[in-house]
Amino acid sequence: MEEKKLKKIIAILLSALFIIATLAGCSGGGTSGGETLKPGVNGEVNVCNWGEYIDESIFEDFEAQTGIKINYNTAASNEVLYSLLKSGGADFDVIIPSDYLISRLIDEGMIQKINFDNVPNAALIDEDYKNLEYDPTGEYSVAYMWGTVGIIYNTTMISDEITSWGSLFDPAYAGQLLMIDNPRDAFGVALEYLGYSLNTTSEKELNEAYDLLVKQNDIRQGFVMDQIYDKMEGGEAAISVYYAGDYISMYENNEDLAFVHPVEGANVFVDAMCILSDAKNKENAEAFINFMCDTDIALRNMDVTGYVSANGEAAEIYAEDLSDMEYEVLFPSDEYLDKCEVFLNLPEETLTLYNDLWIKLKT
What we know:
Blueprint: H1 2-25, E1 31-32, E2 35-36, E3 44-50, H2 58-66, E4 69-75, H3 78-87, E5 94-95, H4 99-107, E6 111-112, E7 142-154, E8 177-180, H5 183-194, H6 203-216, E9 220-224, H7 228-233, E10 239-243, H8 244-253, E11 257-260, E12 268-276, H9 282-293, H10 295-305, E13 308-309, H11 312-320, H12 324-330, H13 334-337, H14 348-362
Parallel strand pairs: 3-4, 3-5, 8-9
Antiparallel strand pairs: 1-2, 5-12, 6-12, 7-10, 7-11, 7-12, 7-13
Helix pairs in contact: 1-10, 5-6, 6-14, 10-11
């Protein structure tokens, strides 16, 4: 952990020197990739991201470098973000959704093509995270972070060996169990345990997953998203499902916590930066995306969030300072990843079924 703290200090110092050099070299704007960035008409950019998923100290750097003010917001899940966008209750330029939502937003014309002339740092994104199935032409998104989902448990509260998603349906943990509060991940846990694809369109299989989640009602303490930090770090719950990167952050505050990649496999996800079709500040949005792809900025974001950047150079540097445990959590073997699936966008009738079953489950 001390090495990680030292790395963060170095990254901050380098960033500070970069800003000083930038301000000395130009007035009213900064440079990135050798080109001058100019504030847009409104001089601002409106960003929506997930909670605990960025180093907010970089905002000052971006504003000093470009003259563009960041208005920052968060959403609890892909489903909440989609509802906000569809209802017109959000005024964002840049959003950072997950793979399957990106595909849906492209299909529905809700995000626009990026002008990559304004995002030269996109060249730093590893080829493994370009032109993926959710954005096959690579025109609508720039990958930000990737990771897996798994089981987090408190070793002082659970003495059993945890290996399977089945532990999340075990009556032995009644009242101590938390479930992730979004439908694709929650149903994904049940589908994996039942041996079905995360992307099944079978009404029968989805209803079986629903029945399993209903049985969990009797032992579940509650559904959580960002509340999981306080619950697991404070020993208020013993076992949960959540993202590997967030486990790293939790472990720093409670070393009794352990992480498991379930034997059945899991979801592996990619979150990416996109620009909404009705964005008022498109060039500013592109400047923000370009800034986020910078290696030093990617390192700072990884150090704070615990997730792995799609910037290959930054990910390699970050991996060098990880403990064996951290590396195994964040970089599962190729053999394990072969058992994992990426969430795909589903047909409208399947999405409707998901929504109906989720409402029934929550009420």
